[in-house]
Amino acid sequence: MKFVAILRFAAVLASFVTVVASAGRAATEPNSQVTILYDAFGADAAMKKDWGFSALVEIAGKRILFDTGNDADIFAANVKAKSVDLTNLDFVVLSHRHSDHMAGLNYVLSVNPTVKVYAPKEGFGIYGSSLPSSFYRKDDSLPPQMRYYDGKPPEVLKFGAAWRGANFELIDKTTEIVPGITLIALVSDAPGTKELKELSLAINTVEGVVLVVGCSHPGIERIVEAAVAVNPKIRLIVGGFHLVAAPDDIIAKAVAALKDTFKVENVAPGHCTGEPTFTALKQAFGNRYLYAGLGTSLPLGPSTSAGERRGEGPVLQQDDLTTYRRLARREDPFGVLQARNLRSNPSQL
Ligand SMILES: [Zn+2]
Ligand SMILES: [Zn+2]
Question: How far is the CA of 51 from the centre of ligand 2 (A)?
């Protein structure tokens, strides 16, 4: 009898522990990893470099595609080169509406048409949107043929997506979409990208937050600040920090904030982080800088030391460096250079 009581107590205790452990935390599993599928630098000869970003995040039993690159054909080729199965995804996250992050969506939908796609909710955006019809002023004195919807509008006006039939779920504000997995929604205030909404992916593991960022247009510091609200321990940041055209003092400020203010444990920068920022981060983080060029798989299991290329800068051999620079210069995808030119030379207005 006593033994049965102990067993019951143990069962109750075990279920309590399970509940506590699963509340807002995602367990990392031994095979957890982030694989870079699209970027303009990397050492994997089987993959094609291009300006843009995409990563496959396998963590907490989930397979998440974060962004889809700049060109559907290159994205498809890179996916095949890494033998990634896109028919078996839990969901897709599109960080923002810039084409270097979403142009591969056509390919994703061609192999997995019903996959859930989280995207930022923007007014009249390409991912679709909606507004209550009360937003516009009415004038009852007009005849019906001069009135919108003959004077009888639907309660909600729906605006179409560029991908008809896709299973979009639009995110307006920071939301925990699955226990332990949060989409951070912020709006850029930078010249050239004002009012651009961007989603970042924060996975709260027992070892801290794994934060995946697309282009960081709202500012990497603001994104990390939002991630710290999920869990003050930031284990890793992967993706574009958007300092590709920033001057040294801005880079130094951002690097110091990540290292000293937010005490970020590891960084794996890519995409629009920028070459001088790679250098500054490498100097600041040492062996906590993880190389994340195209084709890299970053292990995220509970003990992650094996297989990681710690402390390395990007493989900036001459070919690779030339490609990254050419692709970064090809356009001013962020409007930063244009904004700076206008500031220093207002006559261009
Ligand atoms: Zn962008
Ligand atoms: Zn970008």
Answer: 8
